[in-house]
Amino acid sequence: MDSHSSSDAQIERLRATGYVVVPGFVPDDALAALNAVARTQLAARQEPLELEADLQYPGAPASRNAVGGGTVRRLLDAYARDAAFAHCATMPRIGGWMQRYFGDRVLLSRAHHNCLMTKHPRYGSLTGWHRDIRYWSFTTDDLVSVWFALGVETIDNGALWFVPGSHRLAFDAARFDAAKFFRADVAENAALLAAAESPRLAPGDAVFFHCNTLHSAGRNDTDAVKFSLVYTYHSRTTHALPGTRSAAKPEILLEDE
Ligand SMILES: O=C(O)CCC(=O)C(=O)O
């Protein structure tokens, strides 16, 4: 269990930088169970799935019928897939961390992230620069996601990149393209992106990042599939706007600390 002082230092870093890596967050036995379930479910192509061909990000197969067209990008609704995934999303260490960040009881969104992300060699796509909040609809823009690395994540296998401090910046709409990606071809944007960092993650590491933090991820140039679990949280005073995708699934209230 974290001491309160170490989680407070991590929270301070998240507030200052927009993301923070917490090494060794997932205990070894839980990590082994998560990896086993992840591999079994991918091999079984257990629905619901999102395919690379459906999303059409750069590097994705042109269609489901093209070579590599069956490549999975996300195994959706991780929370409902297996008790190991649900436990990971709601473990007391996460609940306590989030409650200290938000200063209130915390909800897990089942509408956003809440997935096992896979990045495959050859047919896995890259993800352009974006802020998650641009695709979401809540009463505030204070949500935090956690990315759990189930294996090693490096630039070579498509790790995440973050722009430190970007969660605090205001951008006008012209700095994003029609699909809400931050335009790397705008000089002012390119200057900001030059400061991006890609932390190397070891198996079991967690990255906490704010929904306004600009981030992206590369392609997987190795021979092995990369597996990560991702969940998003907000305080009980933040609400998904009725009728939007953000309100599409009931949320999970985490245990009080
Ligand atoms: O692994 C990736 O391609 C990045 C995923 C991502 O940034 C997202 O889902 O918001």
The number of helical runs is 7
Q: What spatial form do the alpha-carbon principal axes imply?
A: globular
Helix proportion range = 10-25%
Name the average pLDDT. 96
Termini, distance in Å? 12 Å
Strand content: 15-25%
Bound ligands: 2-oxoglutaric acid
Let me know the largest β-sheet.
9 strands, antiparallel
- Count of DSSP E strands? 12
The low-confidence parts are none
Structural class: alpha+beta
H/E series, N to C? Answer: HEHEHEHHHEEEEEHEEEE
**Radius of gyration, in angstroms, nearest whole number:** 17 Å
Structure description:
It is a single chain. This protein is an alpha+beta fold. Helix content is 25%, strand content 21%. Strands 1, 2, 3, 4, 5, 7, 9, 11 and 12 form a nine-stranded antiparallel beta sheet that branches. The two termini are 12 Å apart. It binds 2-oxoglutaric acid (AKG). 2-oxoglutaric acid binds next to strand 5 and strand 10.
